[in-house]
Amino acid sequence: MSNDVDTKTVVQDTSTNTKTTKRKRHALVKRLHNFIPPFPAWKKPVKQAIALLIGVIMTLSDRCREAIGPGSLLCAIVVIFYFPARTFGVVLEDVIYGALGATIAAAYTILAMFCANLARDPTDPIAVQPESSGVLAIFMFVGVFIVSNIRQRIPRATFACINASIMFAFVLTDASSINGFTPSLAWQFLIPICIGSAICVAVAMLIWPEDSITNYMSVLTKGLEAHNAFFKEHSEAFLGISPISSSSYSQTTPTSSSLSVLHDRLQNNTLTLIDCKRAVHRDILFSRVNGQDISKLTQLTKTLQSPLYGIGVSHIVKDDICNSEPDHEVAVFKDTIQEISNMFEPLAEACYGATANIIERLHEFHDTKPRSTLNSILWPFPRLFIFKRRQQHDLEKDGKASYSSVGLSNILNQCKDVDWWPVVAPLQQHSEPLSLYAVSFYRHQLSNYCQRLISLLEFIEHLESTRKSRRLWIPSHKAIRKRFQQTHQDVSHDGTGGMNEETLVTGLSLVRTNTRIDDNEISYEQQPRRPSTLLSTTSHSTPRKTTMYYRDPDVDPPTTRMQRFWFKMHLLYSWLLQPQTFFAFKAAGGCCVLAIPFYLPWTVDWYMEWRGNWALIILQVWASSSMSGLFFFNSLLRFAGTAFGGILGMLVWEMTRANPYGMAVVLFVGFVLLYHVFVSKPMYRVVPMLTAVTMMLVVLYSYNFKVGVFQGNWPVYTIAGKRVLLVIIGLVAASIITMFPAPMTARVELRKRLAQTLRSIGGMYSILASQILIPETATMTSTEEQAKGLRRLALELQRQIADERSFLQLSSYEPPLRGRFPKENYVSVLQHVSTMADLVYLMGTATNEMQAHVRQQIAEAMAEHRRDYAASIVTIIKLLATTLSSKMALPAYMIAPEEARERYARALKNRITIRPDNINHPSFFCYSAYVVTSTAFVQELQNLLEVVERLVGVEDPQEWLRMHIQ
């Protein structure tokens, strides 16, 4: 009996232990499964590794290596730079640029070899001669100077410049040790570059191709969803009775944070959407929509941001009124909002539902659902279960309501027909004017938002009626032509060659004249080199086709032929002193210094044996005029990546023992792991990239020595040491070139860029103010070209502010040696500047929407007070920009923006009476928008003044008096 009990106990214990073991094993398997990233995270690394593996096979395969030549390892090097795990159109464009650059560089090197052969003495048996070496060195200097200059000024030419640098580093150095004219030397390096480029195109097109239009639709729908959530939140907050937030314009920090949050939420998706749109324009599409449709969708989506931002501003203004005004005025204001809520809540709900419906209908044009793991692995075979998913999607679509542009227009027209005077009459009698303007501002922005949603709905309805099925779309010639036009200009440095710093990236360059603009004289001129620099292009203002010179306080504009000649010499001298040009000089000089051993007969043999060309390539590729802190950080990462690559290269060689199949497998696994780090850790991308480059150089050079491509029989650690040493020499040379004579710092660049942005905002404010200050300008009818110009200026301002945010982030890499960097103050300055840019755009749209005769009436009423107020605001903006740029202290006595606004508001309240017929006029809502945004703009300017005062200080005349009492 006891034995049976013991047996049962043992069996139970055994079963319990077995269950525990299975449970632990299951937990371990689950933990490992969770640790391994999903397939979409591995798709790009595997795709890049496949491309690199094909490039490596070009060297490991005897037949391929013999067909390509001794430069076959360049196939894999070129693949690393192109990164084919991107959309096909982007890769193809980069490959075209790269092939063009390599071809031009090959022709240039052939010309250099021809000229060097002419200078060589044919009777001298020594190939390396001073005359031919001097010619090659001159061609090296000129070529590197041109390539570096182009690379600094035209970012999209980067791949062309990299390929040209590779050609210069190999051909212009190896040619010194070859007697005679041998153009085949250029082909030895041009062919592998072209083959590597073709590998990238083939992999990008055939292996898990990235769908640019799917990426675009995903970003578009996410942006519309964010816009819809923003609209619902702030519209309900405005129409509600109790305020949600407690931000007040009288408080510096809450206001700036609230308005900056509005900016971040709306602008966070815009630049990404534009980049995705450009990627779509480069691709061959198989979809219901084409590139022009995508451009129209992007344009209509961007137009939603301005009224949405206005709705957010109206919410903040409403909270400010509820928190700062007397109780009896707040009660009247809340009653008015309650009545407005009953009128406009149906329109707000219709806008919210229409946006949600737009998002659903966009999915019909191109399904944004990503492929499943099985369907991705089975590419290029058709998707599985696609019919079942589409049928389920059709059933879901049938159960949802659809909105039409006609129905939304009817709701909008009903709201526009509301008599506004009875609604806001209590505010006119018992509250401050800002309350009346705030509710009118909300109605105006809600109507604008609805109108732009109607335009978007109309376009979608047009697509639904004309785009019935998918088809192939080839990029249009217009889209291709635009890719070759430069759309961005770096203005981060001085030396503009006769131009003032006010010539900005936005194209907003006001003409400097000898006289001020009076009420009876308007002088609008254009600079011939920069057309469309001003917004006014109507028939009232005909630009004069004359040469424009920016006013220089040192000299008058040139008048004689001799003066014009020296003026051009001055422009040339200023161009040579520009940082981009000066950096190109340094890069060219550094390359010539590193190439000196190739041009001396007693050093050429060992330098060729060491393949010192790679030091020149590393110097040209990694030298840049970037910020000093970021460059030092990246230099440390490059050194680490080079060391890791050398170690991994030796490990791969020892593991495989020169077996090409084993090397291919081990290298493929290493590439996958390295590029997984490359994709998942953007901050440390330099490390896996340099690791892959150095590892391939060590392995492939060791294999070439093993099979007899190169003379010698060196051990792998010697080859690894030489490769690592040459890479480090190139990195050290790049560091010296970048840091000498004075490195650029992100914090200084941030301060100068902020000053430039402020000048641009001041220029926009001056143009807008002139439309309601000068009667002759006010009578001009607003044109579509002016509206486009205003949108273009606003977008360029946002790009400029995005660059400034990048500089602010880069400042964290710079150790504050002389003292602590006041980062919190610059964060505040950046927030205020970005908010002012948004507000001045709202002011511009409101001004352009006013009728011409209304603007004329505003300009003629209280012209003197209005001009004094505008002069104060423009002067303060100009003063803040100047103090930031020159680190000059603010004057001891100046009028504050709030004080100027209060004086002007008192004058308006005492002299201007708003009648019922004025309130019901359509332009009154535009004027309300202008007043509210102008008030917010002035408050942001006041807050900015206080922050800048903390940065630069204020002059203290009393201190001088105290110092000279005795």
Automatic annotation (TrEMBL):
Q: Which residues cross the membrane?
A: 67-83, 95-120, 132-150, 157-173, 185-208, 571-600, 639-655, 661-679, 686-704, 724-744
Region feature (Disordered): 1-23, 521-541
Query: InterPro entries recorded for this chain?
Result: ArAE_2_N, BRE4-related_DUF2421, Brefeldin_A-sensitivity_4
Q: Biased-composition ranges for Low complexity? A: 529-541
Q: Which UniProt keywords apply?
A: Membrane, Transmembrane, Transmembrane helix
Q: Where is the Putative ER transporter 6TM N-terminal domain?
A: 133-306
List cellular component terms (GO): membrane
Q: Where is the composition biased (Polar residues)?
A: 1-17
Q: Which PANTHER family match?
A: ARAE_2_N DOMAIN-CONTAINING PROTEIN-RELATED, ER TRANSPORTER 6TM N-TERMINAL DOMAIN-CONTAINING PROTEIN
Give the protein name, as stated in the record.
DUF2421 domain-containing protein
Q: Which source organism? A: Lichtheimia ornata
